[in-house]
């Protein structure tokens, strides 16, 4: 097929511009790819092919970036609105942190994960082994805070804790997966996340007066994700991210509370000279419901990678498995946090699993790493009556 001079000139112009690939030019001008390739000189065909691949890859990346921005756009917009509209919680008066003279100086670490605080679990669904909802979660939050303060301020009187680290390691809400929103506190994911974020802020307000610094680190879990499969490029496309930003907005007047919410499903921090790797753990494969082989394999590989970079990890901190436990690992330890609900309809009926609602608290000393640990049990008598001091400013649960 002969081409008109105008079309020939147009083909040459588009090739010179280098914006469109050969296939794109053919599509644009409604001609064959071979026709466009005939306008490339000797030796240029291979170059044009490479250029085609490069342009196609660039266009795919641009499309992916647009999709990512669109996915995260909801949370970016909500974050800005929350920061502007939320009325910050009034901080409590700062208490005097104990002097170091004659005392053991350490940092204290609270693992905060797997609250699934917006869940509604009725006793008849789980053989009478658990009764859980947002009201009970608020009471368990009070128990957790009270235990942390009692143990660090009154029991360990020969210790001085200057810094409290809170590893907020995902699944703070039950999220959208498995149609969980239908069986949640507000039956609305935004309101659920805002409520749990406010609960976290109340906890940080109560803890902050007793420490010089409170450092809160958030990572996202699997229940909060808004995609069917886990998208590793978009950890902020997750209701756990909104929980963290909500808590941060409520705590903006607390000068000694610092938030770290990385755009990553995992992060590493230094505590008293020891490396802590924080990740939820949902991408670890279990064998017959036992995660240790998968955990050990992942931590072994990550240890090697971080050691090569000169930043060794001594402690790997996980949530997800709802069973507070630990295992030695090379130069440190693998720590798995507990969960706030003892079981759920899925865990009870499908897996036959039920545990004690608990969270992990421990100290870190500069010479020996983790020095002591306390499994904080969350259930209390009359918890069905609800919280004594944590009351949310949102509407009542439906």
Brief descriptors of the model:
5-stranded mixed sheet; 36% helix; alpha/beta; 6-stranded mixed sheet; Purple Acid Phosphatase, chain A, domain 2; 398 residues; elongated; 11 strands
Give the overall pLDDT as a whole number: 87
Q: What characterizes the major β-sheet?
A: 6 strands, mixed
How much helix, percentage-wise, in residues?
A: 25-40%
State the separation between the terminal residues, measured CA to CA.
70 Å
CATH superfamily of the largest domain: Metallo-dependent phosphatases
Specify the overall morphology: elongated
Residue fraction in strands: 15-25%
How many β-strands, per DSSP? 11
Widest sheet: strand order? 4-3-2-1-10-11
CATH class of the largest domain: Alpha Beta
Order of helices and strands: HHHHEHEHEHEEEHEEEHEE
The CATH topology of the largest domain comes to: Purple Acid Phosphatase, chain A, domain 2
**Count of individual helical segments:** 9
Parts with pLDDT < 50 across at least 5 consecutive residues: 43-48
Second rung of CATH, namely the architecture of the largest domain: 4-Layer Sandwich
> What count of domains describes the coordinates?
2
Radius of gyration over all CA atoms, rounded: 26 Å
- SSE class: alpha/beta
Question: If you had to describe this structure to a student in words, what would you say it looks like?
Answer:
The protein is α/β, with parallel strands linked by helices and 398 residues long. It folds into two domains: 1-85, no CATH class; 105-385, Metallo-dependent phosphatases (Purple Acid Phosphatase, chain A, domain 2, 4-Layer Sandwich). The chain is 36% helix and 19% strand. It contains nine helices and eleven strands. The protein has helices at residues 5-17, 22-29, 33-37, 44-85, 134-155, 189-207, 239-250, 292-308, 345-351, and strands spanning 104-112, 159-169, 213-219, 257-260, 266-271, 274-279, 315-318, 325-329, 332-336, 358-365, 369-377. A six-stranded mixed beta sheet has the order 4-3-2-1-10-11.
């Amino acid at each position: 097929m002969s081409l008109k001079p105008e079309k020939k000139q147009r083909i040459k112009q588009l090739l010179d511009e280098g914006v469109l690939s050969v296939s794109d030019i053919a599509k644009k001008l409604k001609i064959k790819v071979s026709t466009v390739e005939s306008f490339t000189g000797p030796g240029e065909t291979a170059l044009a092919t490479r250029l085609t691949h490069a342009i196609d890859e660039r266009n795919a990346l641009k499309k992916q970036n647009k999709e990512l921005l669109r996915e995260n756009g909801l949370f970016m917009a909500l974050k800005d609105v929350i920061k502007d509209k939320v009325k910050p919680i009034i901080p409590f008066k700062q208490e005097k942190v104990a002097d170091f003279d004659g005392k053991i100086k350490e940092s204290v670490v609270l693992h905060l994960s797997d609250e699934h605080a917006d869940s509604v679990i009725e006793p008849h669904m789980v053989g009478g082994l658990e009764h859980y909802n947002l009201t009970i979660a608020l009471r368990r939050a009070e128990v957790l805070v009270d235990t942390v303060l009692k143990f660090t301020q009154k029991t360990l009187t020969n210790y001085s804790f200057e810094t409290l680290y809170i590893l907020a390691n995902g699944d703070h809400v039950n999220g959208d997966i498995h149609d969980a929103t239908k069986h949640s506190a507000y039956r609305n994911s935004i309101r659920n996340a805002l409520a749990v974020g406010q609960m976290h802020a109340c906890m940080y307000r109560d803890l902050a007066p007793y420490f010089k610094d409170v450092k809160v680190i958030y990572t996202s879990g699997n229940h909060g994700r808004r995609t069917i499969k886990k998208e590793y490029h978009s950890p902020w496309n997750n209701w756990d991210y909104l929980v963290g930003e909500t808590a941060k907005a409520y705590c903006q007047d607390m000068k000694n509370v610092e938030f770290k919410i990385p755009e990553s499903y995992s992060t590493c921090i230094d505590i008293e000279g020891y490396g802590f790797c924080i990740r939820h753990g949902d991408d670890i494969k279990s064998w017959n419901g036992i995660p240790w082989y998968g955990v050990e394999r992942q931590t072994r590989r990550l240890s090697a990678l971080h050691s090569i970079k000169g930043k060794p990890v001594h402690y790997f901190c996980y949530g997800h498995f709802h069973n507070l436990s630990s295992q030695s690992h090379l130069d440190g330890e693998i720590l798995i946090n507990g969960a706030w609900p003892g079981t759920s309809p899925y865990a009870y009926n499908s897996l036959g699993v039920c545990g004690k609602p608990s969270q992990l608290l421990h100290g870190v000393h500069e010479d020996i790493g983790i020095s002591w640990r306390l499994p904080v049990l969350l259930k209390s008598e009359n918890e069905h009556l609800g919280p004594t001091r944590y009351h949310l400013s949102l509407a009542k649960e439906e």
